[in-house]
Amino acid sequence: MYLPIFVLTFYSFNKSRYSAGWQGFTLEWYTKLFQDTRILSALQNSLIVAFAAVGVSAVIGTLMAVGLARFRFRGKSLYQGVSYLPLIIPDIAIAVSTLVFLAAVAIPLSIWTIVSAHVVFCLAYVALVVSTRLADLNPHLEEAALDLGATPVEAFIQVLLPELMPGILSGCLLAFVLSMDDFLIASFTAGSGATTLPMEIFSRIRTGVKPDINALSVILIIGSGLMAFIGEFLRIQGDKKRQG
Predict the structure, then answer these.
(1) DSSP bridge partners of 25
(2) If residue 62 lies in a helix (H) or strand (E), which one and from where to where?
(3) Separation of alpha carbons 83 and 63, rounded Å
(4) Do residues 141 and 163 make contact, with C-beta atoms less than 8 angstroms apart?
(5) pTM of the prediction?
(6) Could you tell me if residue 21 is inside a domain?
(7) Where are the transmembrane segments (predicted)?
C-alpha cells in the first residue's frame, strides 16, 4: 500500500520534467515550489481555513462533549446522534447541502463560507475525541472541587479542562489535517479567489502530474505524518499522567 508513496517521493527528486524516466537527482522542484506564488497563496488560504475552523471547533466541540457527558435533558439522544452525523455522511452530501443552504439565505461565497462548512465536520471529530477522553476521567474530580468551595466555572477551568487538554489537542490535530486535505467541500463552498491547496493541486494535475506537485505531495505527507505523531504522543503522555 505504501509503494505509491515511495514512488512519488522518488520521482520528486527526478531531474526530468516528466516521470517517464530517471535523469538524475535534483532539489530544483522543491526550490521552485517555494517560489510559486499560486501555491503559496493557496497554502495561506488553507492555513486560514484550517486554523479558523479548528479554533471554533475546539471551543464548541469541548463544551458539547462535556455537556453531553455531564447533563441530562430532553432530546439528548437525538441531539447526540445529529451531532455526530458528519462522521458518517459522505463529503459530497455535506458539500451540496451547504451550497444549497448558502444559496437559499443569499450568503456570498468566500473563504469564510469554507470555514463555516469545515466547522461542521471538524466539530464532530473534536467532540468525539474529547468524549473518549472524558469517559476515562474520574467523574468525582469536579465534585471534590465543588465540595472544596470552587464554583462550577472554576471547577471546569482548573480541574476538568487540564485533564481534557491532551484529548482536545489530539482532536484539533486530527481536524486540522482533515481540513487541510479537504477538496470536495472547499470546492463547493469557495468564492472567487478563495482557492485552497487541494483545489490548486487538482487544477494542475488535470494536465499531468509534474515533479513540483510530487514535491508538494511529499511535503504534505510528511506534515500529516508529523501531526499524527504529535497527536499520538500527546495521547500517550496523557495516559501516563493519568495512570501515574
Answers:
(1) 14
(2) helix 37-70
(3) 13
(4) yes
(5) 0.85
(6) no
(7) 47-69, 81-105, 111-130, 213-234
CB atoms within 10 A of CB 139: 11
Residue 178's domain is classified under what CATH number?
Answer: 1.10.3720.10
Sequence-distant (≥ 6) Cβ neighbours of residue 16 within 8 angstroms: 22, 23, 211
Alpha-carbon gap, residue 58 to 123, rounded angstroms: 7
Answer whether residue 34 is part of any domain: no
Whether 143 and 151 have beta carbons less than 8 Å apart is answered as no
Q: Which three cell numbers stand for residue 49?
A: 481555513
CA 66 to chain centre: 21
Q: Where are the beta strands (DSSP E) in the chain?
A: none
Residue 68 lies in domain: 40-241
Which of the 8 DSSP states describes residue 156? Answer: I
- Grid cell for residue 70: 455531564
φ/ψ of residue 21, rounded to 5: -160, 160
Judge contact between 168 and 54, C-beta under 8 A: no
24 in a structural domain: no
Q: What is the mean pLDDT of each run of 10 residues along the chain (244 residues)?
A: 83 76 82 88 92 95 87 82 86 91 91 93 90 80 78 82 87 90 91 86 79 85 83 72 62
Please state, in angstroms and rounded to a whole number, the distance separating the CA atoms of residues 37 and 76: 48
Residue type, 135: A
Phi, psi of 25 (to 5 degrees): -85, 140
CA angle 75, 78, 84 (to 5 degrees): 135
Q: Are 95 and 189 in contact (CB under 8 A)?
A: yes
DSSP 89: S
Task: Assess if residue 237 is contained within a domain.
Answer: yes
Residue whose C-alpha cell reads 481534557 in the numeric block:
164
CB-CB contact of 23 with 14 (8 Å): yes
